[in-house]
Give the backbone structure.
Amino acid sequence: MRSKFARRTLFLSWVFIVGAVLLILRLYFVQIIHGDEYEREALSQYSEPSPDTGNRGDIFFKKNDGSLVAAAVMQTGWKIAIQPKVLTDHDEVYEKLNVILPIDKEKFFTSAQKKDDPYEEIAFRVSDALAADVRKLKIPGVILVQDQWRMYPAGSLAAHTIGFVGFQGNKKVGVYGLERYYEDLLSLPSSGLYVNPFAEIFTNMGSLLAMDPTTQQGDAVTSIEPSVEQNMESVLKNVQKIYSPKLTGGIVMNARTGEIIAMAVLPSFNPNTYNTVDDPSVFTNPLVESIYEMGSILKPLTIAAGIDAGAITPQTTYDDKGFVMRSGYKISNFDGKARGVISMQEVLNQSLNTGAVFVQERTGQETFAKYMHEYGLGEETGIDLPSEVAGNIRAIENGVDIDYASASFGQGIAVTPIEMIRALGVLANQGMLPEPHLVTAVRYESGITRNVTTLPQKRILKPETVEAMATMLTEVYDKALLGGELKQERYSIAAKTGTAQIGIPGGGGYYADRYLHSFFGYFPSHDPKFIVFLYAVEPQKEVFASHTLARPFLEITKFLINYYNIPPDR
């Protein structure tokens, strides 16, 4: 009998404990999570709800110190609407409203004349304070409508990455950038205040147990560092100002993790006022949606493949005659001049096309093509941005000698900038293929944050190959680039330029006076923290990328070294 009583007592105790825990959790959701929403409900007791108001998760930048900075948030406020058939003295109503906030006079009187229309909106994005003043007037036929809209506090900063929310039919959805890619994550239910309290609690528990955090609804935390992004955009604006390219872009990536720290394209736009943009093509992100022949920036990958395959060493020499003939076509160095017997180091130092062809042929067509594929060229990277396209490297799949020869120095094959930095990232990541990504964590409504895991990295190059390339590319930066003018005494930097002729559409050869300039570098050379990629399409005044992009690269590099307090390595 005593044992039965004890069991009942224990059972009831657990019932009370579980009930208390659920009650505490419910209070947490009511007071902490939904407190602001209930407050707005109280304020709006005499107002109409907006039929198209939608709730949405936030997007955050992440600063170096771990703090979050809002990149995209929901702003709450009000619309003011009128019921034309209820309004009496139009002039008096207009004057009363216009004293509180500016009202478009023409719009107001046009709307007021629509006697058969039961509802006409006359003011938008009205603050709580102004809405309270309008409410006090108690004007028949004037109603307040709760409203929410998407706001981008940083304006145009990282606009191509963040994207924006727009209308798809009658529904507001993400239409570009992270807003579109993570639509399911960011699109929150609008009935959070009235959901069954136990369902709400267990739904949030389910978010914690989900295998992939991005399949649940919440806020997106990105790896974009706002100060680094701002620095890069400032540097690119200066490139635009001086050299007037059609387009400039850049990426800063964590050399080890693949996290994108900055990603910028110019010309850009302000997502808060996207509807004022005349040319919608500015919304597309060419870093993931456009392919280019990158030119000599690819030569380090050719040299690395040759070293890794055992076809050459950094000391291997060849006789440079200034040009070679392949498949009836002449391939020349940039200046057409012969250098005689030189080493692989000089191939990189002087960016010699004939040297790249020599390495490709020593490596063999099949092996060369295998390495290019393993670098991830010709395939999507899987970065979490919409509309990514794959590069075109078909020329080295069923090509002839001239196709392989051209590909060895970055012509005849085309890739996206994100493909290019991933491939070059192998050199900065101990021979492993990085996985570029932007969202690093998801923050749920409960306040709990879960990190997003990435796939295991695949080894492409041997560690000794990477070390050899770091040494060679450091010499390129220290001695060959602008005659060694940019060498840093306390920091080693591995880098290479690229100057590619731009192809004539339709396969009619190449323009003689149009170029794509590119530049990449990583640092410190033998223990890289960051890899930086820059490019400019059809810059003016200068022919070679060393003159247009080398100094901008160094400006970004110095900022990163100082901002992240990277210790010197020499």
In short: The chain has three domains: 11-36, 75-151, 226-563. The radius of gyration is 30 Å.
